[in-house]
Amino acid sequence: MLDSLMIEAKVETVASRPVSLGLRVTPGSAIEFTSPPWLPAAEKRINALLNLQANWDGEGAPSINFDCAMGAFSFLFSNSMHETPAPQLVPTSSGGIQVEWHLYGTDLEIRFDPKEPVTYFYSGADGREIEGEVEELSTVGSLLRALPTRNERIQSSR
């Protein structure tokens, strides 16, 4: 008898590959969501950024805005699939947080700013660039899912 069974829930195909929700079926038919393994570290990093004092950069930057931190974490929690690579979480001099991925020639940056709308910048390995304001964070989710996955990076390094 299996203790648990990992199933690939093919919810979308991005760049000719299935995307997994990271669902696990346990004995008794319970379904559990398994978040990306880096999510707890991202939570710790965001909490560390929230503890930065004003002037953390030595040039008068304010402390990190709570709403920006919550927006960044909420975006990661809501839009990351199990295979999504870990982001870099960077404080901004305006008191916001920038969530970044730089992978194999593909860049995605999402900026949560306390006084401006959420913005994004995407540069694909094919040279395509897209940037703008984010009206709905889920609209950037498709760009996030287009990033090279953790599994692809592991396979390409073998």
Question: How would you describe this protein?
Answer:
The structure is a single chain. The protein is α+β, with helices and mostly antiparallel strands and 158 residues long. It has a single domain (37-156), classed as Nuclear Transport Factor 2, Chain: A (Roll), CATH 3.10.450. Helices cover 26% and strands 27% of the residues. The protein contains four helices and ten strands. A five-stranded antiparallel β-sheet has the order 6-7-8-9-10. A three-stranded antiparallel β-sheet has the order 1-4-5, with no helix packed on it. A hairpin with a 6-residue loop joins β8 (106-112) and β9. α1 packs antiparallel against α2. Mean pLDDT is 79; it is low at 1-24 and 153-158.
Overall geometry comes to globular
- Output the number of helix runs: 4
Overall structural class, as computed from helix and strand content, comes to: alpha+beta
Mean pLDDT comes to: 79
Strand content range: 25-35%
CATH topology: Nuclear Transport Factor 2, Chain: A
The sequence of SSEs as H and E is: EEEEEHHEEEEEHH
Q: pLDDT under 50 segments (min length 5)?
A: 1-24, 153-158
Tell me how many strands there are.
Answer: 10
- Overall CATH architecture: Roll
Q: How many domains would you count in the coordinates?
A: 1
Please report the distance between the alpha carbons of the first and last residues. 32 Å
Main sheet attributes: strand count, strand direction, barrel closure: 5 strands, antiparallel
Based on CA atoms alone, the radius of gyration comes out at 17 Å
Helicity range? 25-40%
Quick one: CATH class?
Answer: Alpha Beta
Oligomer: single chain
**Widest sheet: strand ordering:** 6-7-8-9-10
